[in-house]
Amino acid sequence: MAEATYDLCHRVRGMCAEALAALRPGPFADAVGAVAERLADDTLVVAVGGRLNAGKSTLVNALLGQRLAPTGGTETTLVSAWFRGHHMNRVQVHFHDDRPPVSIPSRVGGGVPESMPYDHTEVSHLVVEAANKAIGRHYTLMDTPGRDAVSALDDYSMASIRKADALILAMPQPGEGDAEALREFQETMRGSRLSAANVLGVLTRIDQLGLGTGLEEVWREADKVAGRSAGRMTGLVAEVIPVATMLAETARCERLTERHRHALGILAAADRGTLEDMLPYDDDFLSMAPDAVPVDTGMRRELLGLLDLYGIRQAVDAIDHGARDLAALRDALCERSGIDRLLECVQERLVAGADALRADAAVAALRAAVELAGPAEKDVAGRLRILLRELGRHPALRRVELADAAQAHAAGTLPLPQRNADQLHTLMTGVTDAQRVGLPGDASPDALRGRTGELIDEWKILEAAISRRARLHATVVREIFETMYFSLP
Q1: What is the phi-psi region of residue 136: left when phi exceeds 0, alpha when psi lies from -120 to 50, beta otherwise?
Q2: Where is the Dynamin N-terminal domain (predicted)?
Q3: Lowest-pLDDT range, 114-118, 169-173, 211-215?
Q4: Pair 37, 77: CB distance under 8 Å
Q5: Range with the lowest mean pLDDT among 219-233, 249-263, 374-388, 412-426?
Q6: Taking all residues of the chain, what is their mean pLDDT, rounded to a whole number?
Q7: Is 280 or 126 the better-scoring residue by pLDDT?
């Protein structure tokens, strides 16, 4: 994959350098310096958030390809954790007050320990370093806490997410609280930088969908549920991807050993009628007589703990389709879990757009920093405002305005035909100009110019047909298309 370029980020760094050269120490200079320090590291920060028991930390481990995030209800799941690559395993505790960070032992093998010698209310976040090639290559993962709020995006979680450039939102199987969670999520996103431009949704625990049905039926149902969720969250998330998180973690983190593969091979070779009798429920799987299927109870428990019944069914089916050795089985289970699709989406939608995402976060921070300027810093603040205003005209940096439009549409205050709602979504989620107007990447300049012109005309007509309040949002969309049009070669 081509390395990301950071032209917009470099322009923001130049603004910071110019301002810092003229500023004396103080709150304004500290805030600008913090932005410059953040941009000095050319790494996209992706937060993983979700409500309590959404399978969030299991998803983090699957993305990392290593079990570094704690799962279950331990005290360390109540604080956010940043995962970074290092030549040794270690954990640093950062505090809310002015205390310097403190190192504590990592879990055996690396990762967040089950407990720490500090109350979680004192702790700002943990920095977890591990010898992991996946960490820091293209992005840094942040595991945010899941608490009691329906959407889990409470004040503490949001404070953590605001330090990130993008969000992966873990959503469990929809149920009675789904509508309430959606309303809370929409309300939380209002006024934030979160939108389809930098948010991916993940439908976790898809193994619980269509229990007792065939594997293909489970995936069809998962795709339907993910599609419905994505439709209701148009403009709020770029895409909703189904992932069997437990299966993904086991396969990506190489928890399956040759012993497990051998036992799964025995299951795959068993009489199909006997096997079907074993797989509907855990008790049936554990109680089937060993003479019927020669896999002892201890190994069956291990397989359940690693794969659950859904994963065991997927593993048996993968072996039936030719995944005979351990590496092939792991690869097949990664693909079948949905984690490969998610990793690809992260690369295409987030990593490829890292420059704009990181610059957008930096610009928002600088706008807040300007408000800290004192009377003697008025000239520097004024100059910085002008530079930010000029840079803010770049289409890729008008995401906040597009997010406002998307949230207005979700709330019903910006009524849009489905065609125009889809155009807004495409504009927000596209990385290249061609993608933003719904064209393939190899579209010719003439095709790109023609399509952009059509969209300008269409949104002009829309502006004239809607209320004055809603028109402000439509005008933003039209102006972005116009900026794109006049910047085309």
Answers
A1: left
A2: 46-174
A3: 211-215
A4: no
A5: 219-233
A6: 85
A7: 126
| Residue 5 clears pLDDT 60, i.e. is over it | no
Residues sharing a CB contact under 8 Å with residue 472, sequence separation 6 or more, in sequence order = none
Q: 466 near 475, Cβ under 8 Å?
A: no
Output the DSSP codes for 419-433: HHHHHHHHHHH-SSH
Q: What is the CA radius of gyration of the chain?
A: 25
Q: Percentage of the chain surpassing pLDDT 90?
A: 42
Region 42-51: mean pLDDT is 84
Higher pLDDT, 19 or 107: 19
> How far is the C-alpha of 190 from the C-alpha of 390, rounded, in Å?
25
pLDDT at 192: 65
Structure tokens at 166: 């993008």
Give the three-class secondary structure for 276.
helix
Q: How many CB atoms lie within 10 A of CB 457?
A: 11
Distance CA 204, CA 146 (A): 14
What DSSP line would sit under 173-212, residue for residue?
A: S--TTHHHHHHHHHHHHTTSS-STTTEEEEEE-GGGTTTT
Residue 453 amino acid letter: G
Whats the size of the chain, residue-wise?
A: 489
d(CA 71, CA 62): 12
128: tokens are 């977890």
Encoded amino acid at 157, one letter: S
Instruction: Walk me through the domains of the chain, giving residue ranges and CATH numbers.
Output: 7-65+134-244+340-351 (3.40.50.300), 254-323 (no CATH), 398-489 (no CATH)
Distance from C-alpha of 116 to C-alpha of 114, rounded to nearest angstrom: 7
Tokens of residue 372, six digits: 């800290």
Nearest by Cα to 230 from 205, 208, 199, 207 = 199
At 200, which helix (H) or strand (E)?
strand 199-204
- At position 150, the amino acid (one-letter code) is V
Nearest to 8 by CA among 385, 393, 380: 393
DSSP 213-236: S-HHHHHHHHHHHHHHHHHHTBTT
Is the CB of residue 207 less than 8 Å from the CB of residue 311? Answer: yes
Out of 114-128, 160-174, 194-208, least confident range: 160-174
* Sheet order of strands, 80-85 included: 102-104, 90-95, 123-130, 80-85, 139-143, 44-50, 166-171, 199-204, 240-243
Measured in degrees and rounded to the nearest 5, phi and psi for residue 105 equal: -65, 140
- Whole-angstrom distance, CA of residue 448 vs CA of residue 454: 10
Calpha distance 210→217 (Å, rounded): 7
Q: How far apart are the first and last CA of the chain?
A: 26
Task: State how far the Cα of 424 lies from the Cα of 416, in Å rounded to an integer.
Answer: 10
Q: Characterise 293 by phi-psi region: left (phi > 0), alpha (psi -120 to 50), beta (else).
A: beta
Per-residue pLDDT tens digits for 238-274 = 889 999 999 999 999 989 999 999 999 999 988 877 7
